[in-house]
Amino acid sequence: MFSRFPSHSKFIPTPPQGHSGRTIQSWAFVGETGLAVGDSSGYITLWAILPGDAFRIIKEVRAHEKEVSCMAATSEGTLISGGQNELKAWDAHQRLQHLATMDLADGEVRALQLQGTSGPALYVGTNDAILEGSLQTSLQSFIPGVEAGIYDLCVDVQGQSFVTVDRHRNICRWSTRHLMWKTKPRVDCYCVGFHPEGRAVVAGGANGKLLVLHADGGLVVATVFVADAALKALAYNTDGSVLAAGCEDGNIYICGSKNHGYLYKMHTVLKNEWPILQVDWADDGESLQSCYRKADFCEVALWKVAESKRVSSALSKSMDWPQHTCILSHNILGIWKALEGAFYLSCHRNGSKLATGAQDGHIRIFSYPCREAEQVVYEEQKQGPRQVDIVRFLNAGSLISCFGPAVYVWNIKE
User: Fold this and answer.
1) Phi, psi at residue 115, to the nearest 5°?
2) Which segments carry the region annotation Disordered (predicted)?
3) Do residues 331 and 316 touch, judged by C-beta distance below 8 A?
4) Are residues 263 and 188 in the same domain?
């Protein structure tokens, strides 16, 4: 059964003077014979639905300063409207008498949904969360969301949670079902890392400083100066005793790590001249590979850390890379040959599998290693129309992917 709007102009009264050019933004049926319409100027118009597809205006009120973005009505005739960061309740049976107003501390109202028949629960979708409650009591966070595009993501060593950093400076730790904590430092951060012992999280700042956070609560417990340019990539060696920080200035800063990842001291600098994109440690802790951006191209470098010396990248084929995130390497050249025109933005290894995120919106899982001369076999899943910015294995059975402010959790089936 479909209800239709009036199809003839005689059923629509001429808008009051000064209110022409309004655009309908939302609507809700009120009982069997009422229709509330919210527009771009902040007005709610209550219509009576008459026999023969006729409509008559009952009342019009200025509900919000700007557009009425969404509305919902209870079976008792209470109309709830949302606009900007406020909710309002109206009695539709009393010619839109104003009943209540609730201001939201964070986020703008984007959607409303009433669930249940007797004293229905109200769900409010904002630009960064879904809230649950009622206007009579309060609204609580039901499902938190990501506020802005994600710069980086790291996974804890147990594979049960992950940490994100976004464009609004939020550093968040998540399980696959809820937000564990959120911290908003004063400085923009571009990358994050989880210490292998699981007690500390580090974030690389735009000011070249390393922020050290308590992994259980997100409290910033230390700030360490590393460089004069933004830190763009972080990677611990296997036991967490050394941290490599790739920088916008092209250098990789090698820092010793002690006290469960809370104390850092500069050891050496691997000097390069092009911005670092990703950094990986070899299993032996003696070698390090990095991807860097050179003009419009991506190149890979291999380093002997103790000697602060760059060596032939072809030597990486004989090394084991437990957390492979460099999108260009001799061990994964086969992914670039498998599909013509595919461009990969992110990758991550888990055992014998390599997950990749591509510009065409696909997540592809290859066998690892995936060298150029080998027969390439892969499985793929389309995430969406936009590029996959980040992909990480959470554990052997789960995968995390991101584009913009969206985070996807995937189950991996054998």
Assistant:
1) -125, 125
2) 1-20
3) yes
4) yes
The verdict on 138 and 180 lying in the same domain is: no
- Domain boundary among the residues 322, 337, 365 is at 322
Cβ atoms 291, 297 nearer than 8 A: no
Where the chain has pLDDT below 70, the residues are 1-21, 117-118
Q: Which of 273, 302, 322 is the last residue of a domain?
A: 322
User: Does residue 293 lie within any of the structural domains?
Assistant: yes
| Pairing, β 34-39 against β 276-281 | unpaired
Whole-number percent of the chain with pLDDT over 70:
94
In a domain, 18, yes or no: no
> The CATH number of the domain where 161 resides is what?
2.130.10.10
- 207: part of which helix (H) or strand (E)? none
Q: How many distinct structural domains can be found in the chain?
A: 3
Is residue 162 located within the same domain as residue 278? yes
Length of the chain: 414
- The strand pair at 263-270 and 252-258 is best described as antiparallel
Q: Alpha-carbon dihedral of residues 367, 158, 170, 229, nearest 10 degrees?
A: -70
Q: How many Å apart are CA 89 and CA 31, to the nearest integer?
A: 16
Q: Are 86 and 139 in contact (CB under 8 A)?
A: no
The residues near 400 (Cβ < 8 Å, ≥ 6 apart) are: 153, 155, 162, 390, 391, 392, 393, 394, 407, 408, 409, 410
Q: Alpha carbon of 298 to those of 276, 292, 328, 392: distances in Å? A: 10, 6, 7, 20
Report pLDDT for 19.
Answer: 53
Strand partners, 112: 124
- Is 316 within a domain? yes
User: What stretch of H or E contains 357?
Assistant: strand 353-358
Q: 221 and 368 share a domain?
A: no
Domain range holding 95? 24-143
Structure tokens at 252: 């990789």
Global pTM reads 0.77
Write out the two tokens for 3. Answer: 């209800």
Is 71 exposed, middle or buried, given 0-12, 13-18 or 19+ CB atoms closer than 10 A?
A: buried
Cα 187 to Cα 109: distance, rounded to the nearest angstrom: 28
CA–CA distances in Å: residue 215 to residues 183, 198, 255, 260, 274: 11, 7, 19, 11, 32
Q: What pLDDT, in 10s, does the model give residues 218-249?
A: 999 999 999 999 999 999 999 999 999 999 99
Q: Does residue 61 sit in the same domain as residue 86?
A: yes
Question: Are residues 299 and 369 located together in one domain of the fold?
Answer: no
